[in-house]
Design brief:
The complex is a heterotrimer of chains A (294), B (354) and C (282).
Chain A lengths: L11 H28 L1 E3 L6 E3 L3 H8 L1 H33 L5 H9 L6 H12 L5 H8 L10 H29 L3 H9 L4 H12 L1 H18 L1 H7 L11 H11 L3 H32 L1
Antiparallel strand pairs in A: 1-2
Chain B lengths: L3 E10 L2 E11 L4 E5 L6 H9 L6 E6 L2 E2 L10 E4 L11 H11 L4 H14 L15 H14 L4 E5 L7 H18 L2 E6 L2 H7 L2 E6 L2 E6 L1 H6 L4 H6 L6 E7 L5 E3 L5 E3 L11 E6 L4 E17 L3 E7 L5 E7 L9 E6 L5 E4 L8
Parallel strand pairs in B: 3-8, 3-9, 6-7, 7-8
Antiparallel strand pairs in B: 1-2, 1-4, 4-5, 9-10, 11-12, 11-14, 12-13, 14-19, 15-16, 15-18, 16-17
Chain C lengths: L5 H27 L4 H5 L11 H10 L11 H32 L5 H9 L10 H10 L6 H5 L6 H12 L3 H10 L3 H12 L1 H16 L3 H6 L8 H9 L8 H21 L1 H11 L2
Classes of the chains: A mainly alpha (294), B alpha+beta (354), C mainly alpha (282).
Chain lengths: 294, 354, 282
């Protein structure tokens, strides 16, 4: 936690900390405190007076069937994105880690999508699956499917799930590959000598040894799906049609910015904070676990 | 060049006293070795001289100036660390020059001083290299070069050779000795290696549990160890220590096995007193009368042979003989200490009895 | 010579399929950016490049209006994105390395309190405190400014933790050697810590540049004038609801340009990028 040898200076450490602490206080702590304050107050229509209302905003938000629908959409969306992005990434990483020709070329060709913004990824998918201009979109219609994600809620959800997963695969791929490369060759060789075939080796050796990475990515992908995919959804479906692709974060934006409902939006922000803190806490349990592994 | 005086220096970490009052005046140009097992406080004492550890009590003076409250940079000392502590991103030249640059010494003089030090240490070819491109021995020389260029009042060495392999260690030991002879700068050298201590030191300060067990020249420490601890720490294999009692006339030591070893001079005042009797393995010789041992193990080292014998009462007795072995395991042998080879220590305090 | 079996080809087939799934949308976009709006709008985009590429990119770069809509020229949006990404990346690195240096190399009252204060920002991504943060920025008069775009995003626990972790690996003896050489904390930072942190800085720069360039929700909120539009939000505004009668050729050229800087950074700084990513998540 601390070095044995340090410098002696009374003022300097505070000066060094000042910029970060200032930014943290002004743009993190103060707004977060504000959100919590707002979430237990109700403002009148003119924004002049506000009244302390305990958990009324929360009961209001959580009692709203629309909000519960949004929560359900978010869960479906997040689980689908996480499973899809991790599954595809693990498959590609295992293959790229094996001793095949051109492994490093495959790596380079598979990691660059990390650089794309979620919103840009969504735009690329639109170019392909747009029912008017996209090649696949038109092909689907030509085959007789009634394909239009702008009108069909299920198709819209499928689109944002695919676009969001597509972008996240490269991130997972990088970590799975690093995790695979950290598994000692000797362990695999011992398993070979014990007579385990490639598939058995994967499930009995590789996968368990990879579990810290898998667990870590699980949390990261959930956070990604909860928050960072705002751009994907905003660019592709604007939360629609109806509310078919509205996730929790999109709703915070919608209620706070578009509908100007500060109390409700703040209560939602606080709920999101609780979710992030829970996910972070889970992640720290993981860090402890990882220490035990090494 | 300067003297270094350490006056009743103490160091506490909370309630734990790590250094319990050390007193020594190191002469100008003297090479003092701080010797002891790990955790004895020798490194702490060195770091207090350097200014890297605070001083709880007492005074340290360098060149007659009390430095208790001076920063390391103002103490006019240079230090060589165990792991070299070279700046990994700087060249050999820059590593040596860094302290001089900070002190605002003109470029030309820095160049001259570094070149001179590099010359002495045969580092001229490596001045543009980085530490990672050097071998362990070369890095060690750079660390010494960094100390030399500063032309300090005193050199402080903190186990500088312990990261080197055995062969290189011997070679560097000789080099340090030559360097010290040539530069004549007061040096404090911390080690747990008695060979380094014996070969390098003008004087050795043997430390144990934060206390100076003995301060003396290498030969004094070997020939007249001031305590059982020193007796056991210096010498390889270590000194044999047997329980005994001075007889009623104060003329001999009686051992439980019945042996009677006459004292070189009578000690009437100590008559009947229990003692610890020390005899170095190399001061035992085959004799007609003395300790009868059964040989358990024979270690042939080439130049000499170490025999592990068992006394009738079960105690182990080591005997060191010159040359290749002339005895075998399970042989019986009678050995006796040479004249004047007995060391007597107080059975309770462990201090030497003169 | 060993005979190639079909089973040996399976990994290649799957990997090539993977590569294609990732490359195809980009290819389509590249091709689309070289055709005219009509060809794309009719949905008849060929698989080979057309002849309008130069004109499309030129128009996107400087043009303020397509055939069907008004928009901010790409050069303006690129500049805005570049300023935002660089400010966020360099700002984060600067304030993080300083605070990590304080936490790692000094002992002072409230050290742990400050550490935790920085640490909890990990749990408050900009998305969850978006409305109140917007209000603070508005109260400070920073709407439609580069400062408003960048500063709220530059406090980062991740970068601070990464630097602190690295600083703890610098041996104590190096610090002691510097003390004896006469270097104080400021000199030690400039002469030793900063040069030793080079690879960490480069690695962090890559991921933070991408993080900054790809910001979406925040620029959407704090910029309202076209002059301050960033390119990622700009594209989606150009698309609108995605009707077929869009300036698709311009949009596609803009998309290609929007991808270029971050992809170039990843491809050319791949080694640092992977290191930065894996290290910063430890």
């Amino acid at each position: 936690m601390q070095r044995r040898v340090t410098f002696d200076s009374r003022l300097l450490p505070y000066l060094l900390l000042a910029p970060q602490v200032a930014v943290t206080l002004v743009f993190f702590i103060w707004p977060a405190a504000n959100a919590i304050w707002q979430s237990v107050h109700l403002q009148d229509a003119f924004g002049i007076r506000s009244e302390f209302v305990w958990f009324e905003n929360f009961t209001h938000v959580l009692g709203d069937p629309n909000y519960l629908d949004t929560l359900k959409t978010t869960v479906i969306f997040s689980v689908a994105v996480t499973v899809l992005a991790m599954g595809v990434a693990l498959l590609l990483a295992v293959l790229a880690d094996s001793k095949i020709k051109g492994a490093s070329a495959y790596k380079t060709l598979l990691i660059w999508p990390y650089a794309l913004a979620p919103a840009v990824a969504a735009v690329l998918w639109m170019f392909i699956f747009n029912p008017d201009i996209g090649s696949f979109g038109r092909a689907l219609r030509a085959l007789g499917f009634d394909w239009d994600y702008r009108l069909n809620g299920g198709q819209a959800l499928l689109m944002v799930i695919l676009a969001a997963s597509w972008k996240q695969v490269s991130y997972n791929f990088i970590f799975f590959l690093a995790g695979l490369q950290a598994i000692p060759r000797s362990v695999m060789e011992a398993a070979s000598i014990d007579g385990a075939g490639p598939v058995r080796r994967f499930w009995t050796i590789t996968f368990p040894l990879l579990s810290p990475t898998t667990f870590f990515l699980l949390v990261v992908d959930m956070v990604y799906a909860f928050f960072e995919t705002f751009g994907t959804i905003h660019a592709l479906t604007q939360g629609g049609p109806g509310k078919a692709t509205e996730t929790l974060i999109f709703r915070v934006y919608q209620d706070g910015v578009v509908n100007n409902d500060l109390g409700g939006s703040s209560a939602q922000s606080v709920i999101l904070m609780v979710i992030v803190i829970a996910l972070t806490a889970v992640q720290f349990r993981f860090v402890e676990r990882k220490v035990h592994y090494s | 060049m300067a003297t270094v005086e350490i006056r009743n220096v103490r160091k506490s970490y909370g309630p734990v006293e790590a250094i319990k009052g050390i007193d020594i005046a190191i002469q100008d140009g003297e090479f003092l070795v701080l010797l002891g097992p790990s955790g004895c406080g020798k490194s702490t004492l060195l770091r207090m001289v350097a200014g890297l550890e605070g001083i709880t009590g007492g005074e340290i003076a360098i060149g007659g100036r009390v430095v208790n409250h001076l920063d390391p940079k103002d103490r006019d000392i240079a230090m060589v660390f165990q792991n070299y502590a070279l700046y990994p991103h700087m060249t050999v030249f820059d590593n040596m020059a860094y302290g001089l640059k900070i002190r605002g010494i003109p470029k030309a003089e820095i160049r001259a001083r570094v070149d001179k030090a590099a010359n002495i240490l045969e580092l001229g070819r490596f001045l543009d290299r980085r530490p990672s491109q050097l071998s362990g021995g070369q890095r060690q020389r750079v660390a010494m070069g960094r100390a030399i260029v500063r032309e300090p009042a005193a050199f402080l060495f903190d186990e500088p050779l312990s990261n080197l392999d055995a062969k290189l260690r011997t070679q560097m030991r000789v080099e340090i000795k030559r360097l010290q002879d040539r530069l004549g700068i007061t040096s404090l050298y911390v080690t747990h290696d008695q060979v380094e201590a014996m070969t390098l030191a003008d004087r050795i300060l043997v430390m144990n549990h934060g206390v100076a067990e003995q301060i003396g020249t290498p030969l004094e420490v070997y020939q007249r160890p001031a305590s059982l601890f020193v007796a056991g720490f210096i010498g390889s294999p270590p000194m044999n220590v047997l329980d005994g009692r001075i007889d009623d006339r104060g003329e001999a030591v009686l051992l439980p096995g019945g042996q009677r070893l006459p004292l070189p001079r009578p000690r009437a005042t100590d008559a009947g007193r229990p003692v610890k009797l020390g005899i170095r393995p190399e001061h035992m010789a085959v004799a007609a009368d003395g300790f009868s041992i059964e040989i358990e193990l024979v270690e042939a080292l080439g130049a000499d042979t170490v025999v592990y014998g068992r006394l009738p009462d079960g105690e182990t007795l080591l005997v060191r003989m010159a040359g290749i072995p002339t005895v075998r395991e399970r042989d019986r042998l009678t050995v006796a200490p040479q004249d004047g080879a007995l060391h007597l220590f107080d059975a309770v305090t462990g201090r030497r009895m003169e | 010579m060993k005979q190639t079996r079909f089973i040996d080809l399976v990994p290649h087939i799957v990997l090539i399929a993977g590569v294609l799934i990732f490359a195809y949308p980009i290819y389509v976009t590249l091709i689309g950016s070289t055709w005219d709006a009509g060809t794309i709008g009719r949905g008849g985009l060929p698989l080979w490049p057309g002849g309008e590429g130069a004109a499309n990119y030129a128009q996107a770069w400087v043009g303020e209006a397509g055939e069907r809509a008004m928009y901010t020229p790409v050069r303006t949006m690129m500049l805005n994105s570049l300023v935002m990404a660089l400010s966020i990346a360099l700002g984060k690195i600067a304030i993080s390395i300083l605070s990590a240096y304080a936490v790692a190399f000094f002992r002072f009252p409230l050290r742990m309190a400050f550490f935790w204060l920085i640490f909890i920002t990990l749990m408050l991504p900009v998305e969850v405190r978006i409305i109140p943060t917007y209000k603070v920025v508005a109260d400070l008069g920073l709407i439609n400014t580069y400062a408003g775009l960048a500063i709220p995003l530059i406090a980062s626990a991740t970068a601070t933790l990464l630097f602190r972790q690295f600083f703890l690996t610098i041996p104590d003896e190096l610090l002691e050697a510097a003390k004896i050489d006469g270097a104080g904390p400021v000199r030690f930072f400039i002469d030793v810590v900063l040069p030793l942190s080079r690879t960490n800085i480069a690695a962090l720069f890559v991921i933070l540049f991408i993080y900054g360039w790809n910001q979406y929700l925040w620029p959407l909120l704090v910029t309202s004038s076209g002059d301050m539009e960033t390119i990622v939000t700009g594209i989606t505004k150009m698309i609108g609801t995605g009707e077929s009668a869009n300036d698709w050729h311009i949009i596609m050229a803009t998309t290609v340009l929007a991808m270029l800087p971050p992809v170039a950074v990843v491809v050319f700084m791949q080694r640092w990028f992977v290191k930065g990513l894996v290290d910063s998540e430890k």
